[in-house]
Structures are given as structure tokens and as C-alpha cells.
Design a protein that fits this description.
CATH topology of one domain: Methane Monooxygenase Hydroxylase, Chain G, domain 1
Helix content: 55-70%
CATH class of one domain: Mainly Alpha
Order of helices and strands: HHHHHHHHHHHH
Shape: globular
Number of strands: 0
Structural class: mainly alpha
Number of helices: 12
Oligomer: single chain
Bound molecules: protoporphyrin IX containing FE
Length: 286
């Protein structure tokens, strides 16, 4: 995030309201004039519904930006052995995600025919190219190398995504934190990506069950694990709501990004960021 380096308002410092606030106003602080210039329709004359389409995507991107900012802090807090502070910021992320899940439904007020009025002009732009969405996925541990291909012509995004891809995920850092507190969590063998089960997962699940078997003893870690699972569940809920709205608007037409559309989006519904945290529930007993 950027900030003013001098600590002094750009607008000067003589003011009837106090030093440093001369001409600061709501509009100038938030750069509302500049913000309102950023919705440029492709349709000409502008289709009535294109501003909705642009603004809803821009709003998502702004929230993704904040989510990434908070996730970076969550990682730092876990590395600093501060699970409570990590949980504090995870709660904010979870609340933002709840807004993001619900927000997609605004698009249902656009009729399928109205969308066709400008859809062709968007080709080949697609949600596939949302680098910030992919950054969130990579941080959460969902990493498919083929997703990087969509950024071959976008050097800055590609570099950032490559860094996120190579960095430890939220789950990795959480497990590192637990290991420093005596938990034995053998790393994934990687065999599961080849179709077989990960033999180390049983050992990890048995260890992670302690968080739920003795929640008072491990309350901070238990709460952090639950917020991570909230994030996972809300990403899944976003996917479910998004694909439902997509089907309602374009049916089974292919996507502008070249996928088969709804079929592809449905195939993403089984993705889990924290599979151990989901699986351990099956093995809990009284
Ligand atoms: C009329 C509204 C929308 C339609 C018809 C639509 C359609 C699609 C389709 C068909 C795909 C599959 C990729 C492709 O072939 O293009 C996709 C992916 C995606 N869309 Fe949308 N979308 C809409 C709104 C949104 C909004 C508001 C967002 C907000 C961020 C969004 C974010 C994404 C993302 C991130 C992906 C990639 C998902 C993944 O790979 O798991 N979409 N969309």
C-alpha cells in the first residue's frame, strides 16, 4: 500500500480546522474524481449495463487488494509467533469474503439479452486474467502451474504470481508455527497429486485433532485454524455463487477466456485450501 512520505498533507498546512488539513476533503482524500474516470465502456454508444459490469469487477479487485494486504500480515504474524494477531486479521478477511460472496448477485439484475449487447466486445478478456484472485488462491495453497500461462503477456503480474507460487502458503506457515509448539506434522509427500493418498496425511490429522480435542489448551491455534477454514469455505461459496450466476446469464456458452464456461467453473468446486482441516472432522469422536 502507498502512503504520503512526508506525513504532511499534500494540500498544505494552514487551516481554520487545524494544521495539516487545509483543503483536505472527502473527495480529494479518496480521489473520487480520479476514481470516477476509471469506468471506460467498450460499447459505443455505451450500453446501459456496461457500467455495472465494470464497477462490480473493479470493486472485487479493490477488495482483493485489501485481502492480499491482510494475508501478508497474517503470514508475518504467524512467523512472529503471534497467532492471536493473525486471527485478528483473518477475521477481517472473512468478513470481506462474506461481502464478496453476496455481491456477485447484483449481476442477476442484468438480463442475459442485455449482457449479449456488449459481451462480444470483451473478448478475449476473462476472469482467468484476474492476477489478484490467483494471488489469493496461491497464498491459500491452491497452486496449478497452468494458471500462470494466462499471464504470459503480463510481465508484472507473472512475476508477482511466480513469487506467490514459490513462497510458502498460509497452510505451510501455519504448520511451521505449530511445529515450533511441539506438533509433529510430517510434510506432504506429493504423491496425492499423482492420484494416490498422502501417507503422511493420517499422521498430520491425528496431530491436528488435538486442536479440537483440547480446544482450551490450544485455543489460539484452534481459533486460527477455524478462521483459515472460514476462508476456504468462503472461497468455495464464492465459486458456487459465481458459477450459478454465470449459468443464469450465459447458460452453457463457452467463456471469453477460452474455457468451456460453466463446465470448467463446476470442475473447480472440489478445490480445498486446507484439506487436512476438512478431513480431520471425520475422525473426531466424543
Ligand atoms: C456476467 C458476469 C460474469 C460472467 C458471465 C462470468 C463468466 C466466467 C466464465 C465463463 C469463466 C471461466 C473462464 C473463461 O473461459 O472465461 C469465469 C472465470 C472467472 N471469473 Fe467470471 N463471470 C462473470 C462475473 C465475474 C465477476 C463479477 C468476477 C469478480 C471478480 C469474476 C471473476 C472470475 C474469476 C476470478 C474467474 C476465474 C475462476 C477460476 O479459474 O477458478 N467473474 N467467469
Amino acid at each position: 500500500m502507498t502512503s504520503e512520505s512526508s506525513g504532511k498533507s499534500k494540500e498544505g498546512s494552514n487551516s481554520e480546522y487545524g494544521a495539516g488539513h487545509t483543503s483536505l476533503s472527502y473527495n480529494s482524500y479518496l480521489m473520487v474524481d480520479q476514481l470516477k474516470e476509471l469506468q471506460v465502456c467498450k460499447s459505443d454508444p455505451a450500453h446501459h449495463d456496461e457500467p455495472l459490469f465494470i464497477i462490480i469487477h473493479q470493486t472485487y479487485e479493490l477488495w482483493f487488494k485489501l485481502i492480499l494486504h491482510e494475508l501478508d500480515t497474517v503470514v508475518s504474524m504467524m512467523r512472529a509467533n503471534n497467532p492471536r494477531r493473525a486471527t485478528f486479521y483473518m477475521r477481517r478477511i472473512v468478513q470481506i469474503m462474506r461481502v464478496l460472496v453476496n455481491q456477485i448477485h447484483i449481476l442477476e439484475t442484468m438480463s442475459p439479452k442485455d449482457f449479449l449487447g456488449f459481451r462480444n466486445l470483451l473478448n478475449p478478456a476473462s476472469g482467468f486474467q484476474s492476477s489478484q484472485f490467483r494471488e489469493v488462491e496461491f497464498m491459500a495453497g491452491l497452486r496449478e502451474p497452468r494458471m500462470l500461462e494466462h499471464f504470459a503477456k503480463d510481465e508484472a503480474s507473472f512475476k508477482m504470481l511466480q513469487r506467490r507460487f514459490d513462497d510458502p502458503s498460509l497452510g505451510d506457515v501455519f504448520y511451521e508455527l505449530l511445529r515450533t509448539h511441539g506438533f509433529t506434522l510430517p510434510p506432504s509427500t506429493g504423491t496425492e497429486s499423482g492420484g494416490g493418498p498422502d501417507p503422511n496425511q493420517v499422521a498430520r490429522i491425528n496431530e491436528l485433532k488435538k486442536l479440537y480435542d483440547e480446544p482450551d489448551k490450544y485455543l489460539d491455534f484452534h481459533d486460527l485454524a477455524e478462521r483459515l477454514l472460514d476462508l476456504d469455505e468462503l472461497i468455495l461459496l464464492w465459486r458456487t455463487h459465481h458459477v450459478t450466476v454465470v449459468e443464469r446469464i450465459i447458460g452453457f456458452k463457452p467463456g471469453t477466456g477460452g474455457s468451456e464456461g460453466v463446465g470448467y467453473l463446476r470442475s473447480t468446486l472440489n478445490k480445498k485450501c486446507f484439506p487436512d482441516l476438512w478431513q480431520l472432522r471425520t475422525y473426531l469422536t466424543l
